[in-house]
Amino acid sequence: MTVPGLPMVVPEAGLPARVRIHEVGPRDGLQNEPRTVPTEVKAEFIRRLADAGLTTIEATSFVHPKWVPQLADAEQLFPLVAEVPADLPVLVPNERGLDRALALGARRVAVFASATESFAKANLNRTADEALAMFEPVVTRAKDTGAHVRGYVSMCFGDPWEGAVPLEQVVRVCRALVDMGCDELSLGDTIGVATPGHVTALLTALNEAGVATARLGVHFHDTYGQALANTLAALRHGVTTVDASAGGLGGCPYAKSATGNLATEDLVWMLHGLGIDTGVDLGRLTATSVWMASRLGRPSPSRTVRALSHQE
Amino acid sequence: MTVPGLPMVVPEAGLPARVRIHEVGPRDGLQNEPRTVPTEVKAEFIRRLADAGLTTIEATSFVHPKWVPQLADAEQLFPLVAEVPADLPVLVPNERGLDRALALGARRVAVFASATESFAKANLNRTADEALAMFEPVVTRAKDTGAHVRGYVSMCFGDPWEGAVPLEQVVRVCRALVDMGCDELSLGDTIGVATPGHVTALLTALNEAGVATARLGVHFHDTYGQALANTLAALRHGVTTVDASAGGLGGCPYAKSATGNLATEDLVWMLHGLGIDTGVDLGRLTATSVWMASRLGRPSPSRTVRALSHQE
User: Fold this and answer.
1) Does the B20-309 domain belong in CATH 3.40.50.300?
2) Over chain A, what is the mean pLDDT?
3) Which of A60, A276, A287, B209 has a C-alpha 20 to 30 A away from that of A35?
4) Most B CBs within 10 Å: which of A198, A218, A221, A224, as the mutation test of the B interface?
5) Which residues form the Pyruvate carboxyltransferase domain (chains A, B) (predicted)?
6) Where are the domains positioned within chain A?
7) What residues of A are in contact with residue B11 (Cβ under 8 Å)?
């Protein structure tokens, strides 16, 4: 249901004028997809996202194909989208992955650390410090080539094994990533349990540890419906980089139709209502998510996509 | 997935210490339900909601059964729940409905006005002013009996026919309801299009027109995923009455699995994370919504219910 003039644009004092959306749909959104998505469909997805105005589109991951079979076609995909007019960061877990990415001309890479021992063990089979040690040469070499490096930090707010994560534990990992040269951090609420006061407290603690807000992005999951409220808290703190996934792609492992990632469309609806510039055309973006949903064979979990498309 | 210690409690400055949740599930949540829900199931739903700690539970509606067949059993239901330890407001559209409600001992009633002409016409077959004129004797008589009167105002932010709704139009209707004696107003974002700056602007405009924040409740729909972010904006403005529907009951007419109302569980997750007292036991509330979902034969759209129950 598209109604001209909606959302009504009413700015709120103290919020940024512009937000850069870091679109993670093609990577984070698809990585757990059980059926193999054809490489050409992924490339078309990325092209359409750029057409919709997204300027940062995380394209794929150069992890070992054994760990993420869905993204095993990174070498085939990346050349197909090289001409897309957007920044196309890629995940690199180690030096081998970095080599593969750089060989294809990647100019933005991302490493993925964990704020908790349990998740470092589960995701990387290392202690948190071992994982940081693994990333250090990756970041150094990437920076030496002039690449932009993002550091993901998972489980910044809660962890399914450890519960609430102490702020100082997150700060320590973030500080280490900045010290090794990361240009930007993405603070992940991997299980979606954060609430707005917790977001503000973590951002404040990071500032106090010398990590500037300009270096911080937020990556919220909507598992408990909190992602957009948490985003609002981050915007109030001055954050201008927000991760989101077109159509809300990227489900929880235990709930097929529940969302994992904050849906880009729901984010754009709020930002545009607040008069915050994103450069995104919401109609085109929604059409892209509807198209992708048809390729995946199930409806988008994004509420805005459903409302605008009558998709059911 | 229940994890002890989550959400982590981190208060945020400037928010209220306590919020009263006005639970609308049994009325707003069920009113469009196509299959008739047995009266005893409705009564049990209300009892379980009270057991979960909700203190205001909108029980039913004394509209003409022709308009809302699902709530045609109001006369049978109300006596079944009379002993439930909670306030049980009921909708009354006119003097006939008020008579029926008062005869059964209702002590809290609600009238429902519209901020737009289009919705007044569609919902009440009257102009907005004719609807107000219809409510005036209802409110006066209810107040004379000592009842508490809530005034719902629909379409406070956007209207599917008229688009964005000017603030002054909402203020005029709110002012009229307060002048005729309403104790409390509920500002409805009936189609879920509001964003946080718009919420703040409307609350400010109402204050400037002499309507105190203490008299204002908010009623957000999650059609575009904005309900909780909008609630956060309202809390920052000082609002302490928030409408929500257990399990997110009350769907959009055009999207069966999309939510209409803000889910009480998603709201409680945020409020408890912020250290705001609600009196609600989230585990019991979730169990109630899972039980009700089993009665209705489809999963709850609340993300928190899904996450906590693995319901799919």
Assistant:
1) no
2) 94
3) A287
4) A224
5) 19-286
6) 20-309
7) 197
Question: DSSP letters of B145-208?
Answer: TT-EEEEEEE-SSEETTTEEPPHHHHHHHHHHHHHTT-SEEEEEETTS---HHHHHHHHHHHHH
Q: What is the mean pLDDT of chain B?
A: 94
B132-162 pLDDT, tens digit each: 999 999 999 999 999 999 999 999 999 999 9
- Can you say how many angstroms the Cα of residue A197 is from the centroid of all Cα atoms in its chain? 21
**For residue B251, which phi and psi values (nearest 5 degrees)?**
-85, 165
How many C-beta neighbours within 10 Å does residue A121 have?
16
Please state whether A249 falls in left (phi above 0), alpha (psi between -120 and 50) or beta. beta
Q: Over range A115-124, report the average pLDDT.
A: 92
The predicted-structure confidence for A56-107, as pLDDT tens digits, reads as follows: 999 999 999 898 999 999 999 999 999 999 999 999 999 999 999 999 999 9
Asked if B14 has any chain A CB less than 8 Å from its own CB, the reply is: no
- Residue B71 has φ and ψ, to the nearest 5°, of -105, 20
Enumerate the β-bridge partners of residue A187: A153, A218
Q: Is the pLDDT of residue B253 over 50?
A: no
Query: Under an 8 A CB cutoff, do B228 and A231 touch?
Result: no
> What is the distance between the alpha carbons of residues A92 and B257, in angstroms, rounded to a whole number?
38
Q: Catalytic one among A156, A174, A182, A252? A: A252
Q: What is the pLDDT of residues B4-24, one digit of tens each?
A: 789 999 999 999 999 999 999
User: What's the pLDDT band for A255 if we cut at 50, 70, 90?
Assistant: very low
Nearest to A157, CA basis, from A220, A248, A215: A220
Distance (Å, rounded) from C-alpha A80 to C-alpha B160? 42
Tell me how far CA of residue B54 lies from CA of A15, B44, B49, in angstroms. Answer: 35, 14, 6
**Which among B7, B194, B254 has the least Cβ separation from residue A195?**
B7
CB atoms near residue B28 (< 10 Å): 24
Contact A13, B236 (CB under 8 A): no
**Mean pLDDT of all residues in A247-263:** 70
pLDDT above 90 (res A312) = no
Q: Is B134 exposed, middle or buried, given 0-12, 13-18 or 19+ CB atoms closer than 10 A?
A: middle
